[in-house]
Amino acid sequence: MESDKIILTSKARCRDCYRCLRVCPVKAIKMKGGQAYVEEARCVMCGTCVRECPQKAKSIRSDQERAAGFIKDGFYTAVSLAPSFAAIYSDWRLKRIVSALRRLGFNYIAETAIGAQITAELTASLCGEDNKTLIASACPAVVNYIEKYRQELIPALAGVVSPMIAHAKTMIAKLSKEKKREEFKIIFIGPCAAKKKEAERTEFAGLVDAAITFDELNEWLERENISLNECEESDFDEISPNRARLFPLEGGLIKTAALETDMLDSEILAISGFDEIENALDNLNSNSGLNSKIKIIEPLFCVKGCINGPGAVLTEKSDIFGRKNSVIEYYDLNTGRKNKAKAGPPDFKASYRRFKIEELRDISEEDIKAVLEKTGKLNIEDELNCGACGYNSCRDKAVAVIRGMAELEMCMPYMRKMAERRTDRIIETSPNGIIILDEKLHIISMNGAFKKMFMCSEVVIGKRISYIIDPANFEKLSTRGGAKIETIEKYPSYNLICHEILYALSDEKQYVGIFVDITNLEINQKRLDEIKSKTVCQASELLEHQINMAQQMAKFLGEYTARGEELVKNLMKVSEPDNPPADRNIYKK
User: Fold this and answer.
1) CA distance between the termini of the chain
2) Of 3.40.1050.10, 3.90.550.10, 3.30.70.20, 3.10.310.10, which CATH number belongs to 1-61?
3) Predicted TM-score of the model (pTM)
């Protein structure tokens, strides 16, 4: 399971916008074939790309089916519900979410805030040791960041497990009194993507069986047609300490541990969001002396805390300040209630690893310059550092290209130049004459075919079109307000017949003329017409001749037929006995 990806990409939705790369704090996005993939070895699981992707191409792996499978298979299922649930299911929903979870089939439901209290108190007990600054280790995304990118600060981590792990341990200890571990499952529900990876860490194996987000829970409830409107109010099986319900807010750990009396206390630093975290860690690792002033830093990777987690982006309440107020109201609503939970097992220590992020090879200045030159950045002035590609500078992007994390085509200014060059090349090599005029019909540019057709050169650039041809059609175009003109014109002085297409570029206040040489077509058509005409004449003559001949033959046949008929009649008369020849005496003689 540890090899399964947590952050997924939909190829169909990824639109080559580089938004995820731009917002990724550690640049763990790899571009390949125009698609943005999460390189998990570099990812800290903060889920920023999921929250920020405008096309919803990034998503958090769903473990909803896995959790539902445990219920279907008959396991006793226990839920650890993150304290940020009060920000998501606010107002009247607060007391109904437990009933909804029971309708899904969960047997035991408790607040993760129970573990948050343990984490906060243990962290506070380590504060001030060895006169060094302590970095709270409750946020798994922060731990991932330090393990991968700020390994020199690993000794400063508190070494205390997160509330999810602390609560899982107490639940296991409690449930194991009545059941075998293989008979029940622990399901965490919260707003965090990093929790899924944390649950899969080797040292925490067997503690949390599945971690799902609030978005997954909402989809699950909708699929099962469970509406909070129809659920009754119900209490948790374990009630958490009141202060721990503030844990998901910025400074929540400090508040839970009752460390601070004033958020402006110079010995306490509660921060959220990557920029603040990076700045604080940079100062901590410098010679500024910060570590002698600050006793504890409480960092939360999501801006304003867990209430802004990436696994709660589809909920009704999206206003971050509204979410914060809902958590505070839930805390105030339950003030004075006692904690029914008993102390869990004593082992809440956390260990850390030093992840090695493999690089392809060492990168030299020559390597960087070679990549920059491929994108037309020959001089430092050419490095615009516009950030359109998602990287802060052209050099950062060049390094990413060398490491196989980025592509040359990601440079917007470079691609625009290439597109312009391709357009220029197409125009220049077109067999049709193309000319561009300004609003006063002065020649701005023309391609080689136009120069050849109208026997001109670059010398005419800047002169009016009337210098070469009759401007009448272009003048009509300028008075029509941009309507296209398509016509056939003859240019006897150039031995040309052209099919012309003229149109306006309104925004640029320019006019374009495309001239297609159809001279040979016209000549060939004329010859074809002549051949057709001669053929018709010859056919007429032949037809007339045929008719005359037929008439003559008919005449001759008529005459010969009449004469023949007379001869036949005479022969017939001669052969008759009663009609001897007139001169019979010739026989007597």
Assistant:
1) 147
2) 3.30.70.20
3) 0.73
